[in-house]
Amino acid sequence: MEGRIPGLIKKGWKLIRDVWISASRPAKHLSIGFLALGGFIAGVLFWGGFNTALELTNTETFCVSCHEMENNVFAELKTTIHYTNRSGVRATCPDCHVPHNWTDKIARKMQASKEVWGKLFGTINTREKFLDNRRRLAGHEWERLKANNSLECRNCHSPEGMDITAQSKRAAEAHQTFLFTGEKTCIDCHKGIAHELPDMTGVKGWE
After folding, report:
1. Other CB atoms closer than 10 Å to residue 73's CB: what's the count?
2. Same domain for 177 and 128
3. What is the CATH number of the domain that holds 73?
4. Are 66 and 164 in a shared domain?
5. Which of 15, 34, 172, 188 is the S-S candidate for 184 at Cβ 3.0 to 4.6 Å?
6. Is 24 contained in some domain?
7. Which residues span the domain enclosing 49?
8. Pair 51, 137 in one domain
9. Which ranges in the chain belong to alpha helices (H)?
10. Domain shared by 151 and 180, yes or no
11. Is 128 a member of any domain?
12. How far apart are CA 183 and CA 128, in angstroms?
């Protein structure tokens, strides 16, 4: 009996080794169904994780987690009608800076990724640096909104939903003349609607 014990131990270790080798090698033959199911589960997990991360970066909390935003443009937003008004409907950072439909949202996120460099290198990490760069930064955003026909504004506002009879005479005339005809878009007339304007000295139409 004693002589058989080392042999049993040896066989046991051999069995464990064989199982480990088999488990660690790539499988040579897997069914199409197994591969399809595995791929589907992996896809669901990836898509769920991707969308969760995307939505986390699409919140006001995330946007103002950088002091550059919290102490500058977010502080200014708090004084406007987009933040506090009689209806209690508040526009958050992504409402005005990120389109709602998925493809445009992804494109905007890709554009915004370069803004991470500004954070890493401290481009506007002080109030003085922010003010020095303000006109350039605002210009980029105005150009973007001009190019996409103020898509983010239309997240909440639409010409079809406007009751111009409830607007002031000047606003109603401007919307009928420019907005409804497509001659101009929202950002052409509403720069500075939610944040302070930069120094516009020398800019055509602002003298």
Report:
1. 20
2. no
3. 1.10.3820
4. no
5. 188
6. no
7. 41-156
8. yes
9. 4-24, 32-56, 60-63, 67-68, 74-77, 93-97, 102-112, 115-120, 127-147, 169-174, 186-189
10. no
11. yes
12. 37
- For the chain, how many residues are written? 207
Question: Exposure of 187 by Cβ count < 10 A (0-12 exposed, 13-18 middle, 19+ buried)?
Answer: buried
105 neighbors 98 (Cβ within 8 angstroms) = yes
Question: Is 74 a domain residue?
Answer: yes
**Residue by residue, what is the 3-state secondary structure of 172-193?**
HHHHHHHHCCCCCCHHHHCCCC
Give the tens place of pLDDT for each residue, 138-192.
Answer: 999 999 999 999 999 988 898 889 999 999 999 999 999 999 999 999 999 999 8
Tens of pLDDT along 96-150? 998 888 888 888 888 887 777 888 888 889 999 999 999 999 999 999 999 999 9
Token digits of residue 143: 């150009």
| Residue 148 falls inside a structural domain | yes
